[in-house]
Amino acid sequence: NCQRAAVCGIMLSLQPISILSAGADEEKAETARLSSFVGAIAIGDLVKTTLGPKGMDKILLSSGETVEVTNDGATILKSIGVDNPAAKILVEMSKVQDDEVGDGTTSVTVLAAELLREGEQLIAAKLHPQTIVQGWREATKLALVALDSAAYQSPNQSDVEFRNRLLSIARTTLSSKLLTQHKEHFANLAVDAVLRLKGSGNLDAIQIIQKLGGTMTDSYLDEGFLLDKQPG
């Protein structure tokens, strides 16, 4: 009896123990890899049609029956719910891009999705993932060199051509935002504010104060400090 009990105890200890919660799905090897690729690429395809001057708007319908029309990648990705791990990474990446830069969310998402699309083909051709990653790192270094060589260096910040270049950048950025109807006004405000930094690049020195009432075109740039205080 003791021997039988010991054998039964050993057999019970060898039984597989599930650490997944009830209803959870488990994917392994090739299935998990394909699922990650498909999920991330689908996110890129979702916002790809909104990219560029001929990008199309998308209609977003929330659970509260609120309808929103936009072609802003950050707004679209914030509004969708995803459960694919790789897709979630792309959504989080777009949020970081929006928080740090304020623009380019669609571009980085589409670029990342296309890199994964190419990576899927390379892995199917039996290339090791580390080899692919190393190639991307080398390509990043070359891209940075190319960007530095193409950068416009202004000898004088009061240069008219330099200001016009900044205005073009600001207009392009505002074209996909809610301010698109007033992009000329706000482009001038943004460029004037940046030029007052005199090349320091310290954007924290620019404070945006919101007040109720009036219209968007009532917004103005003031040099100094604004204090919300009552006299006396």
Automatic annotation (TrEMBL):
GO terms for molecular function: ATP binding; ATP hydrolysis activity; ATP-dependent protein folding chaperone; unfolded protein binding. Keywords: ATP-binding, Chaperone, Cytoplasm, Nucleotide-binding. One of its GO terms (cellular component) is cytoplasm. Its main location: cytoplasm. It is found in: Cytoplasm. InterPro entries: Chaperone_TCP-1, Chaperonin_TCP-1_CS, Cpn60/GroEL/TCP-1, GROEL-like_equatorial_sf, TCP-1-like_intermed_sf. It comes from the Eukaryota. PANTHER family: CHAPERONIN. Belongs to the TCP-1 chaperonin family. This is SJCHGC04813 protein.
